[in-house]
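Incident review: delayed structure delivery

Summary: a single-chain prediction request sat in the queue longer than the usual turnaround. Root cause was a stuck worker, restarted by the on-call engineer. No data loss occurred. The affected request and its eventual output are reproduced below so the record is complete for anyone auditing the incident later.

Affected input:
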Amino acid sequence: MTLRRPRMSVSAIVWLLLAALYFLVPLVATLLFSFRSIQTNACCSLAAYHFVLHNGDFWHTLRVSGVLALEVIVISLVLFVPTIYWVHLKLPRLRPLIAFLALIPFVVPPIVMVVGILKVYRGSPSWFYDQPNGILAATYVILAFPYMFFSLDAGFRSIDVHTLTEASQSLGASWPVTLVRVILPNIRAAALAGSFLALAIVMGEFTIANLAQFHTFPIFLQYVNETEPYGAAALTLISFGITWAAMLSLLFIGRRRGGQLQLAGAR
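Output delivered after worker restart:
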């Protein structure tokens, strides 16, 4: 007996085509606009891409924002994975409180947040206050808190934390070994989802970096947008490609193990 695949309805196909057009038409228009020459205003030229890729500020700001993103991801995972694990395991009544605290960055405007943070930490050491890897990274961890928390929380709620922990400890594993070798592999997709959301925040945040007077990738994007319209279109597509490359890597890594529960006890 052969099973027939369900056919997609005509209305579903129409809505998919409309969604694809809504998504692709602006990209195609931006691509065609980026092919115009800066000097002659005619198509087709790669002068805009040459301008971006041979601009030293592009690579400098991309490196600054990339390092910031990695720092924010590492700090967020180190802080939130053990905390959420312990809440699900021992203190489930605290979960609504942490979920409420995670909503605060959505309520407080970034401009208010950065003014308050800069005022509070004005007397802090220069290695923290005057460097993007210091105060800017700490601020971005706060902005990434909601996305990281809700992603990890969904991952922890999809597994049986108590059973995995008891099984691991029955094999002689310590708490750190249980967290790293048993729990973390089972929330891998959730951790990666939260990490790339944090990456998107760092690569796209403008207000805080501008008020804190740090030269990051969004600041460079805004500068190019004000001075070189064709270069701005090319830079937008390049940044879009970087973001999609990160998301495709998430999809690739998340499917490697197919979401299987893994129990790696002490050996």
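Verification: Residues 221 and 227 are 10 Å apart (CA to CA).
Action items: add queue-age alerting; document worker restart procedure.
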